[in-house]
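ingest -> validate -> predict -> emit
validate: passed (alphabet ok, no gaps, 244 aa)
predict: started
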Amino acid sequence: MEYKFLLSYILVLAALFYLYKEKLDIEKTLLINSIRAFIQLLILGYLLSYIFKLESPLELLGILTFMILFAAFTGQRRVKLADKGYIVAFLSIFCASFIVLFSLIALNLITFKPNEIIPVGGMIIGNSLNVYTIAVDRMKGEVKNTIDIIENIIALGGSLKDAFYFVNRASIKAAMIPILNSLQTVGVIHIPGITVGMLIAGAHPLEAVSFQLVIMYMIVAVALFTGIFSVNFAYKKIIRTVFN
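emit:
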């Protein structure tokens, strides 16, 4: 087994030294998370060798479902919605991921093979998780800052959904900003990880770029759908969460 990749940890050690020297109080978090990432990816490497041999669609769906459950658990820990917020996180991530993943299969851009659906599904679910946390966190901030406007709309006879209209718009917009920035700079400022990996593996540059475009457009869709589902599933719980 090749262990040269461990030399890259020198870069993390340099960051740890700087953080410790400047007393930024996040060096412990970086150390723990960097070791955690190493362990998780090492386990993943061994698991994938078995997962890629699976042939049953039910087994593959079970793995994807577990990934969504874990993403929902992580999302709830980050934004902490009151009143069974875990269900909101699960439904938002599940619905958005399901639509995008099976759209790719229907368009024959990927197949239901483990070496395709598991990595792509992981990217979809991971991005959906990020968008969910951004959208809901932005909703909480917007409600705190505009509670007077929300109360006035309701007092004038508007529904809670009407009162949250501008909050939902702002939250979806905030959740879309990272992917918009990526679309603007991809291929100019940075070469994405998928492209780099395929090039290192010996793929033709045009093949690598074509697949990267599928991934980028896929992330756009999952960002939008997750944002929409998040604000529609979460708005009834936001008030209780913010002022609990």
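Residues 1-51 form one domain.
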